[in-house]
Design brief:
Distance between the termini: 50 Å
Oligomer: single chain
Number of helices: 8
Number of strands: 53
Helix content: under 10%
CATH architecture of one domain: Sandwich
């Protein structure tokens, strides 16, 4: 690579005078920083060693592109352009004096590599020379060829579509030597007969009536096939050597509404060339008793020989591939009827052996003809709605599933279809991920193979790539993009980047309303909430497309289509900056001094996840987290710059319900009170209109949350107050498990208040005096539980225990009160006291018979003026519905929450009777203990600050 001097100053400017190596990625075995090899006469020839790859004028570099281009939607053919010194005419394909004359052609293989740091090569491009442009300077002193390099996608994109259907191609490419007759039955309407697909084969002629040609599209692997209303057809088989096996196969659909007993589906005739073989005809008929098929054995006069061969599978209204198999075995012949349900992939076979019979060659196959059997009933010609096609006759037995998915491509995983298409078109194929873990495809149309492959890529949502090992393709499944570990971690502060990673906050990729259509059936998903929703600005951004995606899927099920649309909206509503380009220079000292980092860059594949840590202070503090879509590379004597074309990785952070690392976000959560930059206790509540709470399972902590751009780690999450009363306390209730001190605010003696035996106690030693305990909450709105019981059954009059809220004093509060009546009933009353005037807002009889010491669980929820209560036996699960729901705005101040107990005049229980409380738990608000400044950002937050999982996952498509 001569003429490097003009680039020294540019090199110094680029590297800001930092020390760098003399070679961009190290030296290849040819002493160059890069090696270009051309496939010539069956071997790779290094054309850099001889100075044939020129660095000249302003083209002092090798540029190459591969993968998805900037802002692109699909993988394009890789590309590059080289100027090759051609003074001896070696790169002139038609110069008879050139050293490579007769050895160069269009699409000549070529490859570009750099040292991989392990003593081998890192191939940066494997391409074909699609154009040899001859150029020269007038004097003739400067002669060169501009070689345009293109990845194989360019060539595959120009391949013609197949002329025939999937199953036609499967049978004939190549046509097995055992096939002696083949009638595809794909003839267009108006044809006078059914053409043979075998050279010198005879057509099938219409023996009665005319089939309705090209009328049925039930079999998606085929072009439309005929139906037979009052019609039949017969085809002769050219003479061939007497076989030891005969196999007749065909696709068939038999509508139940038209089937009659002993309807002939197919008749197979054989030559009467062996005196010991009187059988000349085999009729496959419908058996109305078994709803299956039977083979009837006859001679040419219709005389039946022996018992019929009865199949067992119900053949009505199924898409079947049917095989009649006759195999000689010594002096006997084994007869088999085999069916394959191509939709459900169910194979059923029935066989019998007939002695002293041999086979002769098949002479004819007839479809839906009247029976020649001397034994009735014999059905008439044709079968309205019946479909037959792709009839083959072979002199060997093969597996009925030998054609694989080509019998019925519907339901084929997208990855497996790409693999099959590549195999059928001799395209080398590689993959990343599980090819079976891809979406189920619909039928396969007659398109260019690359178009069919792209159809699979679009449906599954993965990435097509060009193979760098051989001239072929690869596929990276969508599932393989999920929740990857970073394959490359760069450090902005460590000068790993060759240019500023410019964040882009535009509307280039927004799609918040998407309609997915499959076979004319559509479903639309729309994001109606959030910063990138379809709501008008400033609440959202308005409606953005693309609004339509037409996919080839196996189903038009509404849920499947809606999932597909929702996934596309998910990708189109990533609320973060994009970093379309992240560039590195492998000649920089940060890579020269860290060979492992350089190797990690060279090993990157399309679809890999990369991160840039320690971004500058004016950017968000989180690591820049991206997926690599493509590469744009520049190689000179002084640098190897690799620019990675990127998109955010966050949409592919997914989880599964059984994954311990996955985090589901709430529908909305916010801080209840303001927090300072140093607070480590945070109170959170659901956002307006939401009810979801954060998990309090200790096994789930820690997790990261994001509030106002700051990431915090939650190390503990509990209800605001939790008290299991597992302590002992006298003359008070002491302190709850979460640290709040219970205050005694009611009457009676101090000794009436205690904790022991796993519950809190109010002793009702006097009548008409309440016992109350309380704490002051952080909000007037709360959702809490408590379990209540009495130590004895009520006598004379009832016993009362209650959960209280917004309790100012003995005369002002809301109560969720239980009355234990003298008939051992339990009444739940939602009651308010205002200025000591009591009002029952709702009453419910709990469906239990009270037993002293058996707890009743009560839930009390207050949200503004909305009050709700429910009660149930504490040993049972919580019922879903509220027992009482009212609206009341008499008391709105926070005040206190707690408990209240009383027995009134008329009650004759002993002075030692108790109301007991257990399991007091305020589930909303919740209390977090947090670690601050996890992402380097720490600040104060106002009440109402939105709080979400820092890196939430969604269920994958």
């Amino acid at each position: 690579m001569p003429s490097i001097a003009p680039f020294v100053s540019a090199f110094k400017r680029r590297l800001v005078n930092l020390p760098g190596p003399a070679r961009a990625s190290g030296e290849a075995s040819n002493g160059e920083p890069v090696q270009v090899e051309l496939w010539v006469n069956g071997e790779w020839v290094d054309i850099t060693a001889g100075g044939y790859v020129m660095v000249r004028d302003d083209n002092g570099r090798i540029n190459l592109k591969k993968g998805i281009r900037s802002e692109g939607a699909q993988t394009d053919a890789a590309s590059s352009e080289l100027e090759l010194r051609n003074t001896d005419g070696r790169f002139s394909p038609r110069n008879p004096t050139g050293p490579y004359y007769g050895l160069l052609n269009r699409n000549q293989p070529i490859r570009i590599s750099v040292p991989d740091g392990n003593g081998g090569k890192s191939y940066r491009l494997l391409a074909e020379v699609s154009d040899w442009a001859q150029e020269w300077e007038r004097s003739g002193n400067d002669v060169w060829t501009t070689a345009e390099l293109s990845g194989v996608i360019r060539r595959y994109a120009q391949a013609p579509p197949p002329e025939r259907s999937v199953i036609y191609e499967a049978v004939t490419s190549p046509l097995a030597s055992s096939v002696v007759a083949y009638w595809p039955c794909e003839d267009v309407s108006g044809s006078a007969s059914i053409a043979s697909a075998v050279t010198n084969g005879s057509p099938m002629v219409f023996s009665t009536g005319t089939p309705n040609l090209a009328a049925s599209s039930l079999f998606t692997a085929s072009d439309p096939l005929p139906t037979f209303a009052g019609a039949s057809m017969t085809g002769g088989v050219a003479k061939y050597d007497t076989p030891t096996a005969t196999q007749v196969r065909f696709l068939v659909y038999l509508p139940s509404a038209e089937l009659t007993n002993r309807k002939v589906i197919v008749r197979v005739s054989q030559a009467s060339e062996i005196a010991t073989t009187p059988l000349t005809d085999y009729e496959l008929v419908y058996n109305s008793t078994t709803h299956s098929l039977s083979v009837v054995f006859m001679d040419s006069s219709g005389t039946n020989f022996g018992v019929d061969l009865d199949h067992t599978q119900d053949v009505r209204d199924r898409l079947l591939y049917v095989s009649l198999e006759f195999q000689e075995s010594g002096s006997s012949t084994i007869y088999t009827v085999r069916t394959l349900d191509i939709v459900n992939d169910v194979e059923v076979a029935t066989s019998l052996t007939r002695n002293t019979e041999g086979l002769t060659r098949c002479t004819a196959v007839a479809v839906f003809v009247p029976s020649i059997s001397a034994v009735g009933p014999n059905s008439s010609t044709g079968l309205a709605g019946g479909v037959v096609g792709h009839i083959t006759v072979e002199n060997a037995i093969t597996a009925i599933d030998a054609l694989g998915r080509r019998l019925n491509p519907v339901g084929e995983p997208a990855g497996r279809r790409i693999q099959r298409l590549c195999a059928e078109n001799a395209i080398p194929f590689d993959w990343v991920g599980d090819l079976d873990d891809t979406v189920a495809m619909g039928g396969q149309s007659k398109q260019n193979p690359l178009a069919l492959i792209r159809e699979c890529v679009e449906a599954d949502g993965g990435m097509l790539f060009e193979n760098l090992a051989v001239h072929g393709l690869g596929y990276r499944t969508r599932a393989s993009l999920y929740s990857q570990d970073p394959q490359l971690v760069l450090d902005y502060a460590g000068y790993n980047l060759a240019e500023v990673p410019v964040p882009v906050e535009d509307d280039q990729r927004i799609a918040n309303r998407v309609t997915v259509t499959v076979n004319g059936v559509s479903q639309t998903y729309e994001e109606t909430e959030g910063r990138l929703s379809t709501a008008l600005p400033p609440a959202g951004v308005g409606v953005y497309g693309p609004s339509d995606a037409t996919l080839n899927l196996a189903t038009t099920d509404a849920a499947t289509l809606l999932d597909q649309a929702a996934w596309r909206v998910h990708l189109g509503t990533v609320d973060e900056a994009r970093h379309p380009q992240i560039a590195v220079n492998l000649a920089h000292s940060s890579f020269v001094d860290n060979p492992a980092l350089k190797r990690a860059v060279l090993a990157l594949r399309q679809g890999d996840r990369i991160q840039v840590q320690n971004p500058p202070a004016w950017l968000p503090p989180d690591a820049i987290d991206q997926l690599v879509l493509g590469f744009d590379e520049s190689i000179t004597h002084f640098e190897h710059r690799i620019t990675m074309i990127c998109a955010p990785a966050s949409p592919y952070t997914v989880g599964y319900l059984d994954s311990v690392d996955s985090r589901v976000d709430t529908d909305g959560s916010e801080t209840l009170t303001a927090i300072s930059s140093s607070d480590t206790t945070v109170y959170v509540v659901p956002s307006a209109g939401q009810t979801g709470l954060w998990t309090t399972d200790t096994a789930e902590v820690p997790w990261d949350v994001r509030a106002g751009g700051e990431v915090m780690t939650v190390t503990s999450c509990t209800g605001w107050l939790v008290d299991a009363f597992g302590r002992s306390s006298s003359s008070s209730w002491g302190t709850a498990d979460t640290g709040q001190a219970w205050a005694t605010v009611g009457g009676g003696a101090a000794s009436d208040y205690s904790v022991g035996s796993g519950y809190g106690v109010h002793v009702l030693s006097t009548v008409d005096t309440t016992r109350r305990t309380s704490v002051t909450p952080v909000s007037a709105d709360c959702d809490f539980y408590g379990s209540i019981t009495s130590s004895a059954l009520a006598t004379g009059s009832g016993l009362f225990g209650a959960l209280t809220a917004r309790m100012l004093d003995s005369e002002n509060m809301y109560m969720a009160r239980l009355e234990f009546t003298t008939s051992n009933a339990v009444l739940l009353v939602l009651r308010k006291l205002v200025a000591n005037v009591g009002t029952d807002l709702g009453t419910y009889t709990v469906p239990v018979t009270h037993v002293a010491g058996t707890f009743i669980r009560v839930r009390f929820q207050l949200k503004g003026s909305a009050l709700k209560v429910k009660a149930w036996l504490a040993s049972e699960i919580e019922p879903p519905n509220w027992n009482i729901e009212v609206t009341d705005s008499s008391i709105s101040a926070t005040n206190t929450i707690g408990t209240r107990s009383i027995r009134v005049t008329g009650n004759t229980n002993a002075a030692s009777v108790e109301i007991r409380y257990d399991g007091f738990e305020v589930i909303n608000p919740q209390t977090w203990t947090v670690t601050r400044s996890v992402n380097g950002c720490v600040k104060a937050h106002a009440a109402g600050t939105d709080v979400r999982v820092a890196n939430p996952w969604i269920l994958p498509l």
